[in-house]
Predict the structure.
Amino acid sequence: MLVRTERLADELYLLAHDETSGRPLLPDRLAGLALAAALLGELGLTGLIAVRDGNVVVVEGSLPEIGLIGNVMCDLEVEKPPRPVRDWLEYFGQHANRSVASRLVASGVLVRRPSRLPLRPVRLVPADLNSAAVVAATLVTDLVRSRRLEARSAMLAGLVRATRLDRDHPMFFEVRDQPAVQQHLDATLAEISPPFLGELLRQTEAAIASAVATHRI
Amino acid sequence: MSETDSPPSAVSQALASNRLGISQVVFFVLASIAPLLVTAGLVPSAFAATGLTGVPIAFVIVAVVLAVFSIGYVAMARHVTNAGAFYALITKGLGRPLGVGGALVALTAYNLLQVAVYGMIGPQLGSYAADNFGLNASWWVWSLLVWAVVTTLGLVRVEISGKLLGVLSSIELLVILALTAKGLTHPAGGHQSFHALSLTDLTATGLGPLLAIAILGFVGFEQTAVYSEEVRDARRTIPRATFLTLGGIAVIYAACSFALTDYYGGQVVNVAQTQSSSMLFALAPGLVASTARTLFLTSLFAAALAFHNACWRYTFSLGREGVLPSAFGRTRSTGVPRVASLAQSMIGLAAIVLTVAAGWDPVNQLFYWAGTTGGFGILILLAVTSLAIVSYFRRDARDESVLARRYAPALAAIALGTMVWLCADNYATLLGVGPTSRAAIWLPSSFAIAAVIGIGWALILKAHSPQTYAVIGLGPESAAHRVPVFSPPANLADTHTSEGSR
């Protein structure tokens, strides 16, 4: 049975790993930055956080959450004074790979598969091979047909583009570097709600480019 | 980066643990300075080309000038994103047109330095292979081999080499110290002569070229600011790393070149003209010399890779901004800026092929001419950057001391400007050619041409692509500063808009 996930960071994780071997498709730090942005995106999409004067703030009256999102909220709330987006991308980026993977294991989307070779780490692979394919196929179809993208899909497409997964992921061959598709995505992101999600994406792009330029990927 | 009051929060601690410390920055930078390349490759060339023995004093003068420059440089780097690039500082201080002009001058200079290394490494590797393994091949075969390795490393994950290069640089320093000690304890005629430290030997004709060559020895120190965003505490780590590197290598260069004058005495210029790089290794025959000769090759290789990286970092930054075609600013999902890296490789290949086709001497024309001209370009950039620092802080003091924002950069501008003038005026001496040589006119003029093209291009961008013009100088950070614009529907597709917003 296909176990689906509708969370931004989960979807990005699935796209950023090989569906059969579980091997990462992105360098560690770049994947971490993008997954951190996806986690902040999840909170932004549900209205739990906002960005004010470049700093991430927890919206007053937000109900406490549990699990990974709860932990992220807790870190954001405890930190005084509030910090800029880039600090949080770096901070959550340090562990985002592992924590999002754990969440996917807990929800049954990923399963642990011991390696056949000795001394090799346990691999995390999708319980259903189609999990990642469904995420990619839905997104690509929406982009190719210039359908109206929901904010979550637009964020996912933006993060896929920021990490350049679209350049090398086989499922994205139809949309890579297509001016019409890119323009549709740009137009959607320019009007995304809440608007700070657009800023979150731009900060992620800058953080990734900066990591590349300083050879720390 | 935001700063928090003590005690540091868990977030601050976690962020700091992931950042670079002072030693890591120094190692990264040492790899691109390649101290053995300077002491074994450049110093003999300096003696040979200028016929002057004042090389040690030239290193000291340049180190003092660069230290004065660095006071303002590290202060401004704290307030500027993309701080590792001179053109970012020039943009902030003197405006975007001069910024793009500076970017093209820098691109020309770093490219000349990159191709220069191929001129030295080919012949060196060739003679090493012939002596040790009996392999005989033309210099360009070895240069192409190194070129192929650099190209490949540029296309796989680039960060693999950082720590290894750091270790190699450290061993290089030890070997240079050993050779220096040997030279100093065995002076020519059995007694020390301090003639090389006297200023009387330095005439205006020789001084400019000598200082330009000495500047070349320090190129790479400016890379400390590249790591501004990546260190634990930019306010302390970057200045310390910069001054530590400058001071350390100044002492080593001065001591080593003094050891050469001491050991060879009055014959130093003659020996330099006939023996070139082996004059340093001859100080201590045996294990130290053979280790030094091997490390000279790794040092050259480290420099080839470091300049390759410095070059693509510039094209990548300019591609991100949209000043160069955006393809240069794109990476693969592996984080490798493929187009920018390949473009550098193609320039390296073109330089090797051109040298072979024109029948030029690899060491004299490719290494020495391209290298010193690259050094002259960096000298121009340093002078213009000093002016930019003064201008930037005149508008906003930013809580920096008056020394850092006014006196030091103004003094540096005067000193560096004088050096540029001395050097331009005596360029034929620098190249070791006759005063009517075309090379002595065209090589330095290339920077004027690059600057004019850059300024013109900036003005075109201002008129036709204000979005790109607005983010000039921001480099990798430009994405964070772009104002999102609503694009027209796809049927009115205008590729320029979509390129601009990438």
